[in-house]
Amino acid sequence: MDRQDQSAGDGERLPAETLSPLARRVDELLALYRYELTPAIDAINAAVSGYGGLFDPETTADEIRAAIDDLFEGDPPLSQQDAPGTAVSHAVLYVDGSAHSNGPAGAGAVIQADGTRIAGLGRPVGSRTNNNVAEYAALHLGLRSLTARCAPDSVEVRIDSMTVINHIWGDSESAVQATPYSTAITDLLSRLPAHEWTHLADSDPNPADARATVGADIAALGPG
């Protein structure tokens, strides 16, 4: 199996949400970069000929696809070569979802381990997806990346969605329609030796917010 097929078909696929072919192709590349937004977007921008970039209105869908194809053909990024499973005492996971008014939604997560930021993650969720689903997707993204990258003794999840908090940590009989996400999230939480959650107020800083917004911008790409 080549790296393109592995990236597109690995266990990091989100539960099915609709994305344009172009947005899904970008997401496949993000998977190769372990959803580290900055190096992935920098790589795409560098691979686009001329002065364009991923979000430049002058960059065509064909140019973006060609740039991504070139990156898949090149050497794997350093982030893919990092050895996972580093032991840490305490990890903090910030998560956030974002949805534009017309539906494109993205997920963001930032991981800190023993006070040091080790990951800033983002990805598109869906082209016609609401903010609640994006919040679940963000928690799924953060937990999956956290459990793959390090082995903390304890984790604090910082999140601003009371809908997710009440569903995941509260009433198990909640009628919120996010079963594919909540099942995966519950499984990931069960792998942690200890965890707690903190509700972030709107006024509290959340570094995952900007990454979720970029993920929503990627979800808006298309059709491609």
From TrEMBL:
Superkingdom of origin = Archaea
Q: Which GO terms describe its molecular function?
A: nucleic acid binding; RNA-DNA hybrid ribonuclease activity
Which PROSITE patterns does its entry note? RNASE_H_1
> Which Pfam families does the annotation name?
RVT_3
Q: Which SUPFAM superfamilies match?
A: Ribonuclease H-like
Q: Which residues form the RNase H type-1 domain?
A: 87-221
Output the InterPro entries linked to this UniProt entry: RNaseH-like_sf, RNaseH_domain, RNaseH_sf
The UniProt transmembrane annotation reads: none
Name the chain's protein: Ribonuclease HI family protein
